[in-house]
Amino acid sequence: MAIVAKGYKGSLLKNNIAIKIDKSKHNAAETGDEALLLAEYAATYIANERELAVAAAEKDGAEIIIMDDGLQNNKVKKDLSILI
């Protein structure tokens, strides 16, 4: 399982690459505070374009991907959407 988040205001989001959060290496200024918190529970990926983060999670073997605030994104095919 993996989580894909936007990494809101993270300084590492300047390039179009996906980043897997490493809690021992990254800080909230680099990844956004929410992504760092989510990384406490599962592998978490951030990217400017969510489809890049989804692709990175899949490449690392994730079979279930939870997208934080990804309901409005139509570039990623979803099997199930839950709005809470």
Question: How would you describe what is shown here?
Answer:
This protein is an alpha/beta fold. It has three helices and four strands, in the order E-E-H-H-E-H-E. It has helices at about 30, 35-40, 50-60, and strands at about 1-5, 20, 45, 65. Strands 2-3-1-4 form a four-stranded mixed sheet. The radius of gyration is 12 Å and the shape is globular. The mean pLDDT is about 90.
Protein traits:
84 residues, alpha/beta, four-stranded mixed β-sheet, 3 helices, globular
Strand content: 15-25%
Instruction: Supply the helix-strand structural class.
Output: alpha/beta
Given as residue ranges, the uncertain stretches (5+ residues, pLDDT < 50) are none
* Outline type: globular
> What does the largest sheet look like?
4 strands, mixed
Rg from Cα = 12 Å
Mean pLDDT: 92
Which strand order does the major sheet show? 2-3-1-4
Element string (H = helix, E = strand):
EEHHEHE
Helix content: 10-25%
